[in-house]
Specification:
With about 260 residues, the chain is of the alpha+beta class. It contains 10 helices and 8 strands. Strand 6 and strand 7 form a beta hairpin. Helix 6 runs parallel beside helix 7. The radius of gyration is 37 Å and the shape is elongated. The termini are far apart. This is F-box domain-containing protein.
Amino acid sequence: MELREREEQENDVVLPKKKKTKMKLRKKRNREERKEKLKEEETEELLQDPLEAFGRDIMLKILQNLKAHSVALTLLVSRAWNGVASSDTLWTPKCEELWLGKAHIPRSAVVQGLPKLAAYSLSVTDGKRTRIMTEDLCDHVWEFHFNKVVPEYWLNLDPYWKGTSPLMHRYFHEDGSQTADPGDEVWGGHECCYSIVTSVVGEGKIREHYVRINRCWPHMLVSRKKDWSWEMSNILYCYSSVPDGHRVGGTGPLLLCV
């Protein structure tokens, strides 16, 4: 009898322990299930299209704070994203920011009715162009000065070296002629003509590109500055395009050339 009573007492102690263990396991399982559910909900939220979540107006405000390159990448997300990311509302201020401080604005980028996204893209492409065209020469006024290697006689006639103003200017014309300001002592009233020489090798690669004044003067190599202005120079003298970014209708060729 005593042995049986002792066994029953031990069983009474063991059973509550088993129940507590089961309850702990059940609670732990419930916690894990809740965590898993929360994780799934968070994943669904992350996977949700931000355009659908925030709407067009808010996404426009967000995209306005991104750089142009980042905005351009969103054009590829979907048709809906393309519709938002190509908006003139978005690209008009980006064009204005791009053009700020530039010496010349390409004519191809300011065509009436052209989408601002296209205007931005054309501007960037044209700003990298180093092949000068007749339109570039004729549209701009050019500052002219001698390089220091010329005889002192010429340096003494050059306002650039004398530290006086105005500097000497040169003008290119569509008929192939070139002129200077009245009273220019260096110019002397002689006739001048110019030509643009470009030689191309296989696959359209430019091998040689320069501008020549008359046939007796050394040809001028062409370069482009960060502000999109032009420079043409040889060992004797240098031409620099005068900034005219304010000019209505832009400058340069209408059709983009590489």
